[in-house]
Write a structure and sequence with these properties.
Elements: E1 15-16, H1 27-43, H2 46-52, H3 55-67, E2 74-77, H4 80-88, E3 99-103, H5 108-117, E4 123-127, H6 130-136, E5 141-147, H7 159-168, E6 172-176, H8 188-191, E7 195-198, E8 211-215, H9 217-220, H10 260-276, H11 278-298, E9 316-318, H12 324-329, E10 332-333, E11 335-337, E12 341-344, H13 352-366
Parallel strand pairs: 1-10, 3-4, 3-5, 5-6, 6-7
Antiparallel strand pairs: 2-8, 7-8, 9-12, 11-12
Helix pairs in contact: 1-10, 3-10, 4-5, 11-13
The protein binds pyridoxal-5'-phosphate (PLP).
């Protein structure tokens, strides 16, 4: 894992512990973005035919093994907010089966969206624990929306019993994997998840603008998003009149022109994550987060993330005041979440020596 450090130039002068929010930029992204600029300039309009139109799919296919999904089941999107709306827009929320279940710990963009969905007829229920959530899934539940790893405290939920209960009563499950993608093995296909959404800014080291949507293969042809557009048409360049004729493939979950430069950048992240291997990344991450907790204990700093590695994602939250600005001035990158504390997210390119140095800086500031 140590050898991967040289692929991330910024690590030379930064203590980068913020991969739960923004992964370090791979050197290859510079090359990839230069390639994009070169194609735009030299191939002009022809670049669309030479791979650009296919990029929402080809980029999704690079990501598929990282998430444990089959090829052609992931389509790139601008962000989680849009990707999730596309799925929500597939259903009629005015019927008897119209409950949407979620956890209060879900990310705010998801929760804000669910509240707006009430205007379209959805009945929203928010629960506080996994047990409550499972208990609340019933025959009137249409969709269960959960976050695989909670952003605030890095708590990792157990998806298997949630999906099993939902399927037993005819409900579906949408998982936000933003805080786990690229950091721990997910196994979307093995879990039998119906839908997943996520993005590339964090552990995937892919930069902004490269969100993604996974749809279980057997759902693809049965769903018709209302949030749609010409790119979802089976023949977009026929410019047909009248209502849309949806593509048979995962392309039916597209809408408008894709964010091509963002997809160029994201591919560099996926390539390096795939090369390192998600299992290896998880092993290193567990070792580093364990070490972080040990250091916090040595200094009697409260730990606000689960101590059991099985229940923890890639970050550890420690209960100290907001000193992120002072740390950033020293090129030490962490963040702070109100009501939680400082979030520290070591990735496969970090070392225990860096954690020692981070704690020296934190202790000096809080002393
Ligand atoms: C779990 C989770 N979901 C979603 C988002 C962001 O959503 P979007 O891609 O719409 O900005 C974040 C953080 O940025 C997150 O941590």
């Amino acid at each position: 894992m140590h050898s991967f450090r040289s692929h991330f130039p910024s690590l030379q002068n930064t203590l980068h512990f913020i991969s739960h929010s923004l992964g370090a930029m791979p050197a290859a992204a510079t090359t990839s973005l230069a390639l994009y600029a070169n194609q735009w300039q030299s191939r002009s309009i022809r670049a669309w035919q030479e791979g650009w139109w296919q990029m929402p799919l080809t980029t999704g296919n690079l990501l598929a093994p990282i998430l444990g999904a089959q090829p052609n089941t992931i389509v790139m999107q601008p962000n989680v907010t849009v990707a999730q709306w596309i799925i929500l827009s597939c259903f009629d929320w005015r019927g008897r089966r119209n409950k949407l279940l979620t956890e209060t710990a879900n990310f705010p963009t998801n929760i804000y969206t669910f509240h707006e969905l009430e205007r379209l007829g959805a009945r929203l229920t928010e629960t506080r624990t996994e047990e409550e959530l499972i208990e609340a899934i019933d025959e009137e539940t249409l969709l269960v929306c959960v976050s695989h790893v909670h952003f605030r405290d890095s708590y990792r939920i157990d998806l298997q019993p949630i999906i099993a209960k939902a399927h037993a009563v005819g409900a579906m499950v949408l998982v936000d994997v933003y805080q786990s993608a690229g950091c721990l093995p997910i196994g979307l296909e093995a879990l039998n998840a119906d839908f997943a959404v996520g993005g590339s800014v964090k552990w995937l080291c892919g930069g902004p603008g490269a969100g993604f949507l996974y749809v279980r293969p057997d759902h693809i042809q049965n769903l018709q998003p209302q949030l749609t557009g010409w790119m979802a048409h089976r023949a977009p360049f026929a410019f047909e009149e009248g209502p849309i004729q949806f593509a048979d493939s995962i392309f039916r979950f597209l809408h408008g022109t894709p964010s091509i430069p963002a997809l160029f950048a994201a591919q560099s992240g996926y390539e390096i994550i795939a090369e390192a291997g998600v299992e290896n990344i998880r092993a290193k991450s567990t070792q580093l987060t364990q070490y972080l907790i040990q250091k916090a204990d040595e200094h009697s700093i409260p730990v606000r993330s689960p101590r059991d590695p099985e229940k923890r994602g890639g970050a550890v939250v420690i209960g100290v005041l907001d000193i992120t600005q002072q740390l950033a001035e020293q090129n030490v990158l962490v963040d702070y979440r109100p009501g939680a504390g400082i979030r520290i997210g070591p990735h496969f390119y970090n070392t225990e020596d860096e954690i020692d140095e981070l704690f020296r800086r934190i202790i000096a500031l809080i002393a």
